[in-house]
Amino acid sequence: MRKKMAITVLFLSGGMYFQACNKKDALPNPCLGVSYDIQYFKTESVGSSNNGSLTITSPVGDTISYQLNSAAFQSSPIFSNLAPGDYRIIVKNQKGCTDTTQVTVFNYGPKYAQVKQLIAGTGGIGGYCGPCHLNGAINGGKNFDTDASIVASWDRIKARAVDGLPTFMPEAPNSPLTLADRQKITDWVNAGHRQSD
Ligand code: HEC
Protein backbone atom coordinates (compact mmCIF):
# COMPACT_ATOMS: atom_id res chain seq x y z
CA MET A 1 0.00 0.00 0.00
CA ARG A 2 2.73 2.39 1.02
CA LYS A 3 4.68 1.48 -2.10
CA LYS A 4 1.72 2.19 -4.33
CA MET A 5 1.29 5.64 -2.84
CA ALA A 6 4.93 6.46 -3.41
CA ILE A 7 4.64 5.49 -7.05
CA THR A 8 1.61 7.68 -7.47
CA VAL A 9 3.34 10.67 -5.95
CA LEU A 10 6.44 10.18 -8.06
CA PHE A 11 4.27 10.06 -11.13
CA LEU A 12 2.51 13.23 -10.11
CA SER A 13 5.78 14.93 -9.30
CA GLY A 14 6.46 15.09 -13.03
CA GLY A 15 3.35 17.20 -13.42
CA MET A 16 3.16 20.94 -13.19
CA TYR A 17 1.91 21.09 -9.62
CA PHE A 18 4.88 19.41 -8.03
CA GLN A 19 7.83 20.00 -10.28
CA ALA A 20 8.74 23.12 -8.35
CA CYS A 21 9.42 21.28 -5.11
CA ASN A 22 12.97 20.25 -4.39
CA LYS A 23 12.17 17.91 -1.56
CA LYS A 24 12.10 14.31 -2.79
CA ASP A 25 12.53 12.13 0.27
CA ALA A 26 9.45 12.58 2.44
CA LEU A 27 5.72 12.22 2.24
CA PRO A 28 3.50 14.13 2.15
CA ASN A 29 4.84 16.52 -0.42
CA PRO A 30 5.60 19.73 1.50
CA CYS A 31 4.49 21.81 -1.44
CA LEU A 32 1.05 20.29 -1.44
CA GLY A 33 -1.44 23.09 -0.93
CA VAL A 34 1.17 25.83 -1.23
CA SER A 35 -0.57 28.58 -3.11
CA TYR A 36 0.34 32.24 -3.01
CA ASP A 37 -1.93 35.08 -3.96
CA ILE A 38 0.87 37.01 -5.63
CA GLN A 39 0.29 40.76 -5.41
CA TYR A 40 2.48 43.34 -7.08
CA PHE A 41 2.76 47.01 -7.90
CA LYS A 42 3.65 47.80 -11.49
CA THR A 43 4.87 50.83 -13.39
CA GLU A 44 4.85 50.74 -17.18
CA SER A 45 7.81 51.39 -19.44
CA VAL A 46 7.73 54.91 -20.87
CA GLY A 47 8.95 55.73 -24.37
CA SER A 48 12.01 53.70 -25.32
CA SER A 49 13.69 53.87 -21.94
CA ASN A 50 12.85 50.31 -20.75
CA ASN A 51 12.07 51.65 -17.31
CA GLY A 52 9.13 49.52 -16.24
CA SER A 53 9.15 48.09 -12.75
CA LEU A 54 7.53 45.38 -10.67
CA THR A 55 7.44 45.32 -6.89
CA ILE A 56 5.97 42.22 -5.31
CA THR A 57 3.97 43.23 -2.24
CA SER A 58 2.76 39.74 -1.29
CA PRO A 59 4.12 37.29 -0.30
CA VAL A 60 7.07 39.02 1.36
CA GLY A 61 9.48 38.06 4.11
CA ASP A 62 12.99 36.75 4.63
CA THR A 63 12.03 33.18 3.65
CA ILE A 64 10.67 34.21 0.25
CA SER A 65 12.72 34.75 -2.89
CA TYR A 66 11.72 35.99 -6.32
CA GLN A 67 12.50 35.23 -9.93
CA LEU A 68 11.55 36.96 -13.14
CA ASN A 69 11.40 34.67 -16.18
CA SER A 70 14.59 32.59 -16.11
CA ALA A 71 16.80 35.05 -14.23
CA ALA A 72 18.33 33.97 -10.91
CA PHE A 73 16.23 34.01 -7.75
CA GLN A 74 16.77 37.11 -5.65
CA SER A 75 15.73 38.14 -2.16
CA SER A 76 14.62 41.62 -3.24
CA PRO A 77 10.99 41.84 -4.36
CA ILE A 78 11.84 44.74 -6.69
CA PHE A 79 12.59 44.42 -10.41
CA SER A 80 13.39 47.59 -12.30
CA ASN A 81 14.57 48.75 -15.73
CA LEU A 82 12.14 46.39 -17.43
CA ALA A 83 11.45 46.49 -21.14
CA PRO A 84 7.80 46.30 -22.21
CA GLY A 85 6.64 42.70 -22.51
CA ASP A 86 5.25 39.64 -20.79
CA TYR A 87 6.89 38.42 -17.62
CA ARG A 88 6.52 35.42 -15.36
CA ILE A 89 6.95 36.14 -11.66
CA ILE A 90 7.99 33.13 -9.59
CA VAL A 91 7.98 33.22 -5.79
CA LYS A 92 9.71 30.52 -3.75
CA ASN A 93 9.50 29.70 -0.05
CA GLN A 94 12.15 28.19 2.22
CA LYS A 95 11.05 24.66 1.32
CA GLY A 96 11.61 25.30 -2.36
CA CYS A 97 7.91 25.42 -3.16
CA THR A 98 6.98 27.91 -5.83
CA ASP A 99 4.03 29.70 -7.28
CA THR A 100 3.86 31.87 -10.36
CA THR A 101 1.85 34.60 -11.99
CA GLN A 102 1.96 36.31 -15.37
CA VAL A 103 2.21 40.05 -15.84
CA THR A 104 2.55 42.36 -18.82
CA VAL A 105 4.56 45.57 -18.65
CA PHE A 106 3.05 47.97 -21.15
CA ASN A 107 4.71 50.61 -23.24
CA TYR A 108 3.39 54.13 -22.70
CA GLY A 109 4.26 57.14 -24.78
CA PRO A 110 5.67 59.94 -22.59
CA LYS A 111 2.65 62.22 -23.04
CA TYR A 112 0.18 59.47 -22.36
CA ALA A 113 2.16 58.44 -19.25
CA GLN A 114 1.61 61.95 -17.84
CA VAL A 115 -2.10 61.92 -18.61
CA LYS A 116 -2.51 58.47 -17.10
CA GLN A 117 -0.71 59.66 -13.99
CA LEU A 118 -2.93 62.68 -13.51
CA ILE A 119 -6.12 60.72 -14.12
CA ALA A 120 -5.35 57.62 -12.09
CA GLY A 121 -2.38 58.52 -9.91
CA THR A 122 0.38 56.10 -9.01
CA GLY A 123 -0.89 52.55 -9.26
CA GLY A 124 -4.35 53.60 -10.40
CA ILE A 125 -5.53 54.51 -6.91
CA GLY A 126 -5.41 58.28 -6.87
CA GLY A 127 -5.19 61.14 -9.31
CA TYR A 128 -7.79 63.75 -10.16
CA CYS A 129 -10.42 61.33 -11.41
CA GLY A 130 -10.62 58.99 -8.45
CA PRO A 131 -12.62 57.72 -6.80
CA CYS A 132 -15.49 58.67 -9.10
CA HIS A 133 -14.14 57.05 -12.29
CA LEU A 134 -11.66 54.51 -10.89
CA ASN A 135 -11.61 51.09 -9.24
CA GLY A 136 -14.82 50.08 -10.93
CA ALA A 137 -16.65 53.36 -10.26
CA ILE A 138 -18.70 54.69 -13.17
CA ASN A 139 -20.08 58.23 -13.27
CA GLY A 140 -21.64 59.76 -16.34
CA GLY A 141 -21.03 56.41 -18.04
CA LYS A 142 -17.26 56.73 -17.67
CA ASN A 143 -14.77 54.46 -15.94
CA PHE A 144 -11.04 55.02 -16.51
CA ASP A 145 -9.53 51.83 -15.08
CA THR A 146 -8.14 50.65 -18.42
CA ASP A 147 -5.86 52.38 -20.89
CA ALA A 148 -8.35 51.57 -23.63
CA SER A 149 -11.12 53.43 -21.81
CA ILE A 150 -8.94 56.52 -21.37
CA VAL A 151 -7.82 56.49 -24.99
CA ALA A 152 -11.41 56.05 -26.21
CA SER A 153 -12.60 59.00 -24.08
CA TRP A 154 -9.84 61.43 -25.05
CA ASP A 155 -12.27 64.04 -26.42
CA ARG A 156 -14.54 63.99 -23.35
CA ILE A 157 -11.54 64.05 -21.01
CA LYS A 158 -10.29 67.18 -22.75
CA ALA A 159 -13.76 68.79 -22.85
CA ARG A 160 -14.40 68.23 -19.17
CA ALA A 161 -10.94 68.49 -17.55
CA VAL A 162 -9.33 71.13 -19.80
CA ASP A 163 -12.11 73.18 -21.35
CA GLY A 164 -14.75 72.84 -18.62
CA LEU A 165 -17.51 72.05 -21.12
CA PRO A 166 -20.26 71.96 -20.02
CA THR A 167 -18.73 72.06 -16.52
CA PHE A 168 -15.32 71.25 -15.10
CA MET A 169 -14.22 67.81 -14.00
CA PRO A 170 -13.40 66.95 -11.26
CA GLU A 171 -16.83 68.27 -10.43
CA ALA A 172 -17.26 71.06 -7.86
CA PRO A 173 -16.50 71.42 -5.02
CA ASN A 174 -13.30 69.61 -6.07
CA SER A 175 -10.56 71.77 -7.53
CA PRO A 176 -10.07 71.68 -11.29
CA LEU A 177 -6.73 70.65 -12.73
CA THR A 178 -3.76 72.98 -12.46
CA LEU A 179 -2.93 74.77 -15.69
CA ALA A 180 0.22 72.65 -16.02
CA ASP A 181 -1.82 69.46 -15.76
CA ARG A 182 -4.41 70.72 -18.26
CA GLN A 183 -1.53 71.39 -20.64
CA LYS A 184 -0.44 67.74 -20.34
CA ILE A 185 -3.85 66.63 -21.63
CA THR A 186 -3.78 69.20 -24.43
CA ASP A 187 -0.30 68.11 -25.48
CA TRP A 188 -1.35 64.46 -25.54
CA VAL A 189 -4.49 65.23 -27.56
CA ASN A 190 -2.49 67.31 -30.07
CA ALA A 191 0.10 64.54 -30.43
CA GLY A 192 -2.61 62.10 -31.55
CA HIS A 193 -4.18 60.95 -28.24
CA ARG A 194 -2.87 57.38 -28.47
CA GLN A 195 -1.32 55.23 -25.77
CA SER A 196 1.96 55.47 -27.69
CA ASP A 197 2.05 59.30 -27.81
C1 HEC B 1 -16.01 63.68 -7.25
C2 HEC B 1 -16.39 62.82 -8.34
C3 HEC B 1 -15.79 63.04 -9.70
C4 HEC B 1 -14.48 63.25 -10.03
C5 HEC B 1 -13.28 63.33 -9.09
C6 HEC B 1 -14.42 63.31 -11.47
N1 HEC B 1 -15.65 63.13 -11.98
FE1 HEC B 1 -16.16 63.02 -13.95
N2 HEC B 1 -18.09 62.72 -13.48
C7 HEC B 1 -18.62 62.77 -12.22
C8 HEC B 1 -20.07 62.74 -12.29
C9 HEC B 1 -21.00 62.77 -11.10
C10 HEC B 1 -20.41 62.69 -13.66
C11 HEC B 1 -21.81 62.70 -14.29
C12 HEC B 1 -22.35 64.12 -14.33
C13 HEC B 1 -21.71 65.01 -15.35
O1 HEC B 1 -21.46 64.57 -16.49
O2 HEC B 1 -21.44 66.16 -15.03
C14 HEC B 1 -19.14 62.65 -14.37
C15 HEC B 1 -19.03 62.55 -15.75
C16 HEC B 1 -17.84 62.55 -16.44
C17 HEC B 1 -17.73 62.33 -17.86
C18 HEC B 1 -18.86 61.89 -18.79
C19 HEC B 1 -19.74 62.99 -19.24
C20 HEC B 1 -19.18 63.73 -20.44
O3 HEC B 1 -19.17 64.96 -20.38
O4 HEC B 1 -18.74 63.10 -21.40
C21 HEC B 1 -16.41 62.47 -18.18
C22 HEC B 1 -15.78 62.33 -19.55
C23 HEC B 1 -15.71 62.79 -16.96
N3 HEC B 1 -16.60 62.83 -15.93
C24 HEC B 1 -14.35 63.02 -16.89
C25 HEC B 1 -13.67 63.20 -15.69
C26 HEC B 1 -12.24 63.35 -15.63
C27 HEC B 1 -11.31 63.34 -16.83
C28 HEC B 1 -11.93 63.47 -14.32
C29 HEC B 1 -10.56 63.68 -13.73
C30 HEC B 1 -9.75 64.70 -14.34
C31 HEC B 1 -13.17 63.43 -13.56
N4 HEC B 1 -14.21 63.24 -14.44
C32 HEC B 1 -13.24 63.51 -12.19
C33 HEC B 1 -17.90 62.80 -11.05
C34 HEC B 1 -16.54 62.99 -10.95
List the helices and strands and how they pair.
Elements: H1 2-13, E1 39-43, E2 45-46, E3 52-58, E4 65-68, E5 78-82, E6 85-92, E7 98-105, E8 107-108, H2 110-120, H3 147-152, H4 154-163, H5 179-191
Parallel strand pairs: 2-8
Antiparallel strand pairs: 1-3, 3-5, 4-6, 6-7
Bound molecules: heme C (HEC).
Heme C (HEC) binds at residues 119, 128-129, 132-133, 139-142, 153, 156-157, 160-161, 167, 169-171, 174.
**Strand order in space, largest sheet:** 1-3-5
The poorly predicted ranges are 1-17
Ligands bound, unique: heme C
Structural class, please? alpha+beta
| Bulk shape | elongated
Mean pLDDT across residues:
89
What is the number of helices?
A: 5
Helix-strand pattern: HEEEEEEEEHHHH
Query: DSSP strand (E) fraction?
Result: 15-25%
- The tally of beta strands, per DSSP, is 8
Major sheet summary line: 3 strands, antiparallel
Approximate helicity band: 25-40%
| Radius of gyration, CA atoms, in whole angstroms | 23 Å
Give the domain tally: 2
Distance between the termini: 66 Å
Could you describe the 3D structure shown?
The chain is built from five helices and eight strands, in the order αββββββββαααα. It is α+β, with helices and mostly antiparallel strands and 197 residues long. The chain is elongated, with a radius of gyration of 23 Å. The strands form three sheets. It has a three-stranded antiparallel beta sheet with strand order 1-3-5, with no helix packed on it. Strands 4-6-7 form a three-stranded antiparallel beta sheet, with no helix packed on it. A hairpin with a 5-residue loop joins strand 6 and strand 7 (98-105). Residues 1-17 have low confidence and may be disordered. It folds into two domains: 39-107, Immunoglobulin-like, CATH 2.60.40; 109-191, no CATH class. Heme C is lined by residues 119, 128-129, 132-133, 139-142, 153, 156-157, 160-161, 167, 169-171, 174.
